[in-house]
Amino acid sequence: MSDRPRRKPSILSRIVRRIIWWIYRFQGWKIDSGLPDIPKFVIAGAPHTSNWDFVFFTGATAEEGIAPSFMGKHTLFTGFMKNFMYDMGGVPVDRTRRANYVEQVADAFAAADHLALVIAAEGTRSSDGEWKSGFWHIARAAEVPVVVAWVSWDSRTLGFSEPIWPRDDYAADLGRIADFLRSKRPEYERYKVLEAQAERLRIEGETT
To answer: What angle do CA 15, 91, 112 make, to 5 degrees?
Structure first.
C-alpha cells in the first residue's frame, strides 16, 4: 500500500511470520486448490470457528507467495505498534470518520498495487454459518473479485475458489459462494446454513 513506510520489515514482524509458518507446517496443513494469480482481491473465509483460523490462512497464503492483509482499528497503527501492524498486513479503519469503513478499504485497494484482504465473512465465531455482507460491499466498491476460502480442521485441508466478481445481486452472489463451499464439504452444517441464507434472501428479493 502506498501509505506504508518503504523500509525493511521490523524484526518482530519477521519473527511472527516465521512462527506462523512453522506452526502451519508443523500441523501438517495442505492446500487443496491454490490462489488465483491476480493482484487484488478479497479473501472471504469460512468457517470462522477458532482464533487459529487467521494463523493457518496466513500460512497457506505464504505458501502461495501472498502476504495477506486484514482490517484493524486505526488506533492500533500508532506508537510502537505502527510498523508491526503495517508489516503484518494491517489496513487501518477509522470508525469515527465520516467516510464509512467500506469506502476507506476501497481507497486502500485503489492505492495498492497488490492487496489480498482476508475477511472472516461469518463475522464472529458464534455465527451459526450465516454471512455478513461487508465483504461483498467492499469488493464491489473496490471493483475487485472475491476469492472464497474454505477450511476443514478434520483433514487439515484448506483451499480457495476461482475469482468471483460481485454483481448487482447479493443473494445470487451468495448462492454462487454457497454452491462452491457445498461442493467442497457437502455435509458440513454451516455451509448448509449459508446455502439456506442465500435462498431465503433470493425469495425475499435481497439484492444489496
So the answer is: 100
